[in-house]
Amino acid sequence: MARMTVDAEMCKGCGLCIPACPKSIIRFSEEINSKGYHYSECFDQEACIACKLCYTTCPDVAITIEK
Amino acid sequence: MAEKVLMKGNEAVAEAAIRAGCRLYFAYPITPQSELIEYMAKILPKVEGIFVQAESEVAAINMVYGASGTGRRVMTSSSSPGISLKMEGISYLAGANLPAVIINVQRGGPGLGDIQPAQGDYFQATKGGGHGDYRLIVLAPSTVQEFADMADLAFDLGDKYRNPVMILSDGLLGQMMEPVEFKPYKTEDELKQLDEQHFDWCMYPNEDEPNHHHHEINSLEIDPLVLEQHVIKLGKKYDLIEKNEKRFEEYNISDENDVVVVAFGTAARIAKSAIDELQDAGKSVGMIRPITVWPYPYEAIKNVLHDRVKKVVVCELNLGQMVEDVKLAVNGKIPVEFLGKVGGILFTPDEIKTKILDK
Amino acid sequence: MEIIAQRPKSLTDLQFTYCPGCTHGISHRLIAESMDELGMRNKMMGVAPVGCSVFAYKFFDCDMAEAAHGRAPAVATGMKRARPDMHVFTYQGDGDLAAIGTAEIIHAANRGEHISVFFVNNAIYGMTGGQMAPTTLPGMKTSTSPYGRDEKDIGYPIQACELLNSLRAPYFIERVSLLSPQDIIKAKKVVKKALQFNKEERGFTFVEFVSTCPTNWGMEPVKAMEWAKENMLPFFPVRNFRDRSVEGGE
Q1: Do B55 and C104 touch (CB under 8 A)?
Q2: C15–A60 C-beta distance less than 8 A
Q3: pTM of the predicted model as reported, rounded to 2 decimal places
Q4: Shared domain check, B149 and B27
Q5: Cβ of C78 and B67 within 8 Å?
């Protein structure tokens, strides 16, 4: 089991984590944060393998991975 | 009393700086200041001090900025053109509230000028050669002994106000030998105290929470409201320095004076000879010699302009720079005359006497 | 479950001021992670000169000095010489290091100062709004090379690693890429190695990050990564130039 959590306020919607995910389970949220960015979110936590590639490529260190 | 040693000014101030606890010195060669950097290169390693010849005066002043940011006493020196290169760094030191001693052994200018003594950097030193609202405490020696003693004073004032301090000397004082006596070396305890006196703001070994500190050596405040308060605070500091740190010498000042001379540094030395000769001839002339040229001792001049004094004569080795401050002090009460000498040439006592005596 | 990836302790909690997708944040994190893993945070001092990354003085949770444009290697020299028991790094952009600060970086490297220099090469001046940098590529349009950089008129991009590799004193020189997660993982090893050598007082260490500037390149962050792979990497080959810790490391 693994969990990928995005700090919605820290995320600037750059989208780098989306193609980085080998399981393609990250997308932009419909919601926007206080700065108006559509933040990233993992839409299928079950499929997450905690490979940390999203964390690795995130320029704002907005992602936390648990395993 | 320590015994006296015959020494060049450049070397004497270097020795005095080491005795004042300076163990870090970064500089670049330039005449007429090179004896200072050579002395530091030779002696600092013997007292476990750090000497680095930088690739430029710009690099040197930034090394000073870094070392000062760690709270330790640090110095640099140069001469006129080199001091111009340090101006941005000096503004950064002032903006970041960093103590540091900068010695300018002035030479003829502008441009490359020559390597003779001059006083053409007065404006640069006292009115701000760098950018922004900042002030440098500027000390102007007129003997080799005073030049040396100013090292100690400069470091103390720098630490007291967290401000860069300049010693504004010149090629004559730097390369001339006079007998000098020195204060004793700082003890180990004193050195340790000096290294730890700024732990409330400087960069030094850290610890984990709860004692972790994040100190920032910085002059950047991107939020104008924050910069506003920062600069206002600097202004209050400068007001305090003006209130507490004005220094000057009164020479032959008396109720008999009918002329008052104002001169600093080497110019003041020569003026003293003229004054002595005139006094022997029965003419009473006094002199105010600013020792701090910032903060400038305006009141010291005002206070000696009693009714007998008919005019003030200002002598400088430039086209006329400090004379503007003297005019501020005199404020139109009596005439202020100017005698200048440029090109790195010194005036003679006779030239000063002629100026004083002519109506 | 336990956390296996989170914000390093050596970063403060402040959100970065960088644009969305700017790789500054990645290089910040690699340095901070390495500082954590090597236990260097409490002995570290950093220098952040003028550029987009000047605000790094607020982002690294160790004592930091902000420095004049181009002068970080000199400031770092003063800091390290004044407190030799501490460790020092600088974090510089391409205009800072390879234009105004060329003398400072060359001489700090040539003296073999015991500092680590982290050099972000994104081929443009970010903070001032997209002007040409010494590493701007031939033909690349910027606000001060609006018709594309003409190498016949103003020469070729400066290759900092190659330049410093001509000096004898430096201990470790490597160029890394931040242009894909895999590249970033490799880059992390290099950053950690550089700081390890720093910790062991081996000498001058230098890491160049091939980076992106989505805003001033006028590209989406993901596109900027692709563009950089195609255009930057040929000019700035990712490899080690010097590693005195291994035989034949030159």
Answers
A1: yes
A2: yes
A3: 0.97
A4: yes
A5: yes
Q: Which of C43, C78, C104 sits opposite B26 (nearest CB)?
A: C78
Closest chain C C-alpha to A64 CA, distance in angstroms = 5
Query: How far away is chain C from the Cα of B16, in angstroms, using its nearest Cα?
Result: 20
Question: Is A56 within 8 Å of A20 (Cβ atoms)?
Answer: yes
Task: Return the CATH number at C217.
Answer: 3.40.50.970
Cα separation, C144 vs C134, whole angstroms = 12
- Which backbone phi and psi does A36 adopt, to 5 degrees? 90, 10
| pLDDT at C36 exceeding the cut of 90 | yes
Task: Please indicate whether, in this complex, the C-beta atoms of C23 and A66 are within 8 angstroms of each other.
Answer: no
| Contact assessment for residue B160 and residue B284, using Cβ atoms and an 8 Å cutoff | no
Interatomic CA distance for residues C90 and C112, integer angstroms: 14
CATH number of the domain that residue B352 is part of: 3.40.50.920
Q: What is the pLDDT of residue B51?
A: 98
Q: How many distinct helices (H) and strands (E) make up chain C?
A: 10, 8
Give the span between the Cα atoms of C4 and B96, in whole angstroms: 39
Report the SS3 class of residue B63. Answer: helix
Q: What integer pLDDT is reported at residue B1 of this predicted model?
A: 59
Q: How many domains does chain C have?
A: 1
Percent of all residues in chain C with a pLDDT value above 70, rounded to a whole number? 99
The tens digit of pLDDT for each residue in A30-46 reads 999 999 999 999 999 99
Say what percent of chain B tops pLDDT 70.
100
Q: Encoding tokens for residue B57? A: 């005066």
Would an 8 Å CB–CB cutoff place C95 in contact with chain A?
no
Question: ipTM exceeding 0.90?
Answer: yes
Q: Which residues constitute the domain of residue C198?
A: 24-243
Beta-carbon contacts below 8 Å between B and C: 136
- pLDDT number for residue C217: 97
Q: Tell me what pLDDT residue B2 has.
A: 73
